[in-house]
Write a structure and sequence with these properties.
Blueprint lengths: L2 H23 L8 H14 L7 E5 L5 H9 L4 E6 L2 H10 L4 E4 L11 E7 L8 H9 L2 E12 L4 H7 L14 H8 L3 E9 L1 H5 L3 H10 L3 H16 L5 E8 L10
Parallel strand pairs: 1-2, 1-4, 2-3, 4-5
Antiparallel strand pairs: 5-7, 6-7
Length: 258
Amino acid sequence: MSQQSVSHNQAFAEREYYNTRWEQEGSSASPPNPERVQLVSRLTANLIRKNSCPRILDVGCGNGWILQAISELSPDAVLHGIEPSEAGVANSCRRIPNANISQAMLEDYTTDEVFDIVVCSEVIEHVPEQLVFIRRLAARVRQGGHLIITTPNARYQDTYFKAHQNVVPQPVENWLRPSELIELASKWFTPHDVSTFDLSELLNMSQFMKRARRMARKIPGIYRASTLIDRGLERRGLGLYVIAAFKKSPSYDATIGG
């Protein structure tokens, strides 16, 4: 089988996976990971607070949760999204009627526009050629603009799937550590802010820790202390998910990475 046929079959499998997933989640009243949506939308709003009518692109926008949250925090933002699945596009258009949503893969997104911020949340870990993918993201960010990426932390990939045996892995699962993500992006971007989050979900995989943390919530002083400890550990890269904001480097070269 040719490489082109393999790529085509993989793209088809991914599209079918997401069509099923976004159809199932489309009627939900809240996103499956509200902390991620909140963190990404707030970070975006902070980065564009001095911009007039900032242009934002969400690559792999899914059901549109992040674009919806950004629109609420930054009503004057011009929102764009690309999503390969029909269900995701339909749900995003319904959720954010004023956004420009296109059904496409990043490599097929036919526009010469560049954006103040490009968001790519929980996508890069499902991409086989990650360096090429970041190059394509960089081509969509204006000079001095920002790229925001979230991805599961590779430190815990085996732990996560052992603890969630009912979770079916997606067609591609290439998780990254914070340092690996920084290295990939460094050819086009400089780090602005890199952290992790959702340490609590990781700790709750242990039934003992889950019970202990539930009891701690009943004691305000202990709960506040444990929350501060969590935040400190997350800043040190120990959270379940990575969140990173990068600024486009002046030395940007669109040819790097093929």
